[in-house]
């Protein structure tokens, strides 16, 4: 481990020096860069209206626009809104976005599983990316390792629903989520904030920005979040399912001329959170030895294959493994903009690297039944170039995108270590170490397996999009994108013990594919306050390889590319008197060759399978209402309706046709209400409440009742007293009614249990903030 750490540090130093040289060369060679849209996407989300959408400007279509003027289903959350909703990391934003579900795969600090309008990927392998693209300051986060990060000093989040097959850096079939930081300003500003809450939680963050020289502005933001957690290990009396995070954001903006802007950005995220512990449902009847019913499992009447039954209360257990996540993510980017007459040129260059070690007590028990360690290191370089321009009736953009990524996985599965002494005593003396690595006791496999993969990926795309106003009311939009992707994948697996190694397989594979995607749309604005739109979009996501725990080379894949044809119609209405807006959207998806992850129980050892379903259908509708009848009152509501069906899919010989897609509740509903009362000329009191309703849904494509979550409500509240002079003091509560709910369930019936990732219980806290 020490040697590995030295190698990592050495590689990290070399890569940072190399990246610095590359960036410096780009900046020296580049001419003056353009100052594009003035005050790009500056939010008017003020301190007195934290839930107001106001007139937040978005850059969802690569230029500054009012979201009410865009014929696209988009939800925008400003920085003040996010703070008032209690959003602290990238997995929290789904609470106020219709038909969006984001869950951490294995608890706090682990990679997020993102499903948008039913489109997502359950896979926990760190070599794959999901069909919903995540962007941080316009940088595509290809690696799962970089997608879970703290949200602080944030200007806004934009959520685009539907395929993004034209403008966005990496083709995605589900949509795009862009997290956008507060940029440097030409005046001094900043804030300091701290909070304490139950379960040993505290958060400290702050930012400062302003001019440091003529034409040079900077901003630095730091955050520290910590919590012991709400889970208790009764064997050690230690807590888990908390957080232990550090983060840094640093920006330097150069404006060498009125037509020039260069933005340098550095990001660091460090995660030392103790790995979250699981609840579990045992699945074996202790009397008959057969499978338990769902009711028996939920009632705690069953056992696992070793005869263990968890009798502890919720949020408590007995765990023999307590280790921490070891994740470090560093990113450096340069965004350069410059004007060439009537044409704007934008260049975005980025490099990110992440090191991950995720050790878990997979069986959630005091016995050594299953322990998995997932490790992956990723290096990603991206380059995007865009040319854009406009006339009285035409807006156009053309560009290119390149991604180069290397992922190295080193992961292990320790299975049935509890039985090692028994196996050793029964195995033949001629067997090395007195151990049968292939499993020789009563048909029970006993092994420590290691799986190593290296994946090299390249993606190259060119794209073009144009908007042409046929009349003052009627606009047509068209876009095309050509994408070429290639992957090389080297994999090896073996059984491993201190005294010997037994190889299973070694494989060198390659995959490539190309595709043309795009969109056609029409916008009709019969009046200044009403926009009607209809669109067709095609999304494409490349195929790849299964990076899970495999024992046969044939299971590596490749799986094929998926395509989604989306048809959408909607309306955006600004309400009379400028008291708010109402947005409506309906959609139908024809989803073919969709990539589906299943954890298949074989009667021996669960197998991870990543394959293509022939097709699926998804349709639904969304409504978003914002009301601001008076300055002191804001209210937002969103409603999502979703139907999904796997039309044709067979996994491990079992048809799942007719099943709902995972994480697709039929109804999602949310709202947030804030009222501000002035106590004096500069003192105010602001109570606020927000809520989320999530309908019944399944976590797995098999649609098992045990791997499902019943409908539930979550309600959060906050009471803030503050001053126009910049200070605020708030008391808050999350999950006010202490609702018990699950955010993920994995079926390990071969071992006699289901893993259960639970949501957090009710939590009280106080927060103080000072803006300057």
TrEMBL record:
Going by the UniProt record, its keywords in alphabetical order are:
Cell outer membrane, Ion transport, Membrane, Receptor, Signal, TonB box, Transmembrane, Transmembrane beta strand, Transport
Q: What is its main location?
A: membrane
Q: Name one Pfam family in it.
A: TonB_dep_Rec_b-barrel
| Location in or out of the cell | Cell outer membrane
Enumerate the spans annotated as TonB-dependent receptor-like beta-barrel domain.
307-736
Q: Where is the TonB-dependent receptor plug domain?
A: 68-176
Q: How does it sit in the membrane?
A: Multi-pass membrane protein
For this protein, the record's PROSITE patterns field holds: TONB_DEPENDENT_REC_3
Under the heading InterPro entries, the entry gives:
Beta-barrel_TonB, Plug_dom, TonB-dep_rcpt-like
Give the residue range of the signal peptide.
Answer: 1-34
Q: What family does the entry list?
A: Belongs to the TonB-dependent receptor family.
Q: What is this protein called?
A: TonB-dependent receptor
Species in which this protein is naturally found: Pacificimonas pallii
């Amino acid at each position: 481990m020490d040697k590995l750490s030295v190698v990592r540090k050495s590689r990290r130093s070399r890569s940072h020096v190399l990246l610095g040289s590359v960036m410096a060369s780009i900046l020296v060679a580049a001419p003056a860069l353009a100052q594009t849209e003035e005050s790009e996407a500056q939010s008017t989300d003020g301190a007195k209206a934290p839930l107001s959408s106001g007139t937040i400007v978005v850059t969802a279509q690569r230029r500054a626009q009012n979201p009410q003027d865009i014929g696209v289903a988009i939800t925008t959350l400003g920085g003040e809104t996010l703070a008032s909703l209690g959003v602290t990391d990238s997995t929290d934003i789904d609470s106020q976005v219709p038909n969006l579900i984001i869950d951490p795969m294995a608890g706090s600090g682990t990679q997020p599983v993102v499903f948008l309008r039913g489109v997502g990927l359950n896979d926990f392998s760190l070599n794959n990316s999901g069909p919903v693209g995540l962007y941080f300051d316009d940088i595509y986060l290809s690696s799962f390792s970089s997608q879970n990060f703290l949200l602080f000093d944030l200007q806004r989040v934009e959520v685009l629903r539907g395929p993004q097959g034209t403008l966005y850096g990496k083709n995605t079939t589900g949509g795009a989520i862009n997290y956008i930081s507060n940029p440097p300003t030409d005046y001094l500003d900043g804030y300091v904030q701290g909070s304490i809450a139950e379960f040993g939680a505290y958060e400290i963050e702050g930012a400062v920005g302003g001019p440091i020289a003529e034409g040079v502005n900077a901003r630095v933001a730091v955050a520290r979040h910590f919590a012991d957690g709400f889970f208790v290990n009764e064997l050690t009396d230690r807590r888990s399912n908390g957080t232990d995070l550090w983060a840094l954001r640093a920006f330097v903006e150069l404006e060498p001329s009125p037509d020039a802007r260069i933005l340098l950005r550095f990001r660091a995220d460090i995660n030392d959170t103790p790995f979250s512990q699981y609840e579990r449902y045992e699945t074996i009847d202790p009397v008959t030895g057969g499978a338990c019913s769902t009711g028996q499992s939920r009632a705690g009447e069953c056992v696992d294959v070793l005869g263990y039954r968890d009798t502890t209360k919720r949020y408590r257990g007995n765990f023999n493994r307590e280790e921490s996540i070891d994740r470090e993510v560093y990113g450096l980017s340069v965004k350069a903009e410059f004007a060439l007459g009537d044409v704007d040129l934008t260049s975005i260059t980025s490099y990110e690297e992440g090191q991950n070690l995720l050790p878990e007590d997979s069986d959630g028990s005091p016995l050594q039944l299953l322990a998995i360690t997932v490790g992956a290191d990723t290096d990603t370089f991206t380059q995007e170039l865009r040319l854009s321009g406009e006339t009285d009736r035409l807006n156009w953009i053309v560009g290119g995108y390149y991604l180069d990524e290397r992922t190295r996985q080193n992961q292990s599965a320790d299975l049935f270590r509890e039985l090692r002494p028994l196996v050793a005593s029964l195995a033949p003396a001629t067997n090395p170490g007195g151990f049968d690595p292939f499993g020789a006791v009563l048909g029970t496999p006993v092994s420590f397996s290691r799986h190593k993969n290296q994946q090299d990926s390249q993606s190259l795309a060119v794209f073009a999009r144009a908007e042409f106003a046929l009349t003052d009311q009627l606009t047509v939009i068209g876009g095309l994108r050509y994408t070429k992707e290639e992957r090389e994948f080297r994999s090896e697996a073996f059984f491993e013990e201190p005294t010997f190694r037994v190889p299973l397989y070694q494989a060198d594979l390659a995959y490539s594919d190309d595709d043309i995607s795009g969109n056609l749309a029409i916008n009709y604005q019969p009046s200044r306050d009403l926009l009607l739109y209809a669109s067709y979009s095609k999304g494409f996501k490349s195929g790849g390889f299964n990076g899970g725990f495999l024992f046969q080379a044939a299971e590596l894949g490749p799986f094929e590319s998926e395509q989604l044809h989306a048809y959408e119609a909607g309306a955006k209405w600004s309400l009379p008197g400028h008291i708010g807006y109402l947005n409506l959207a309906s959609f139908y998806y024809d989803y073919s060759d969709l990539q589906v992850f299943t954890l298949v129980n074989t009667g021996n050892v669960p197998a991870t399978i990543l394959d293509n379903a022939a097709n699926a259908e998804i349709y639904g509708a969304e409504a978003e209402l914002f009301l601001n009848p008076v300055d002191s009152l804001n209210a937002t509501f969103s409603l999502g309706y979703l139907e999904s069906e796997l039309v044709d899919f067979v996994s491990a010989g079992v048809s799942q046709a007719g099943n709902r897609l995972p994480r697709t509740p039929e109804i999602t509903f949310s709202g947030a209400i804030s009222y501000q009362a002035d106590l004096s000329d500069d003192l105010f009191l602001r109570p606020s409440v927000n809520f989320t309703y999530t309908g019944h849904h399944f976590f797995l494509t098999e649609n098992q009742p045990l791997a499902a979550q019943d409908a539930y409500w979550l309600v959060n509240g906050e009471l803030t007293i503050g001053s126009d002079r910049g200070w605020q003091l708030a008391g808050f509560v999350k999950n006010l009614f202490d609702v018990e709910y699950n955010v993920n369930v994995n079926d390990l019936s071969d071992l006699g249990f289901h893993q259960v990732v639970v949501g957090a219980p009710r939590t009280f806290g106080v927060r103080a903030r000072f803006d300057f």
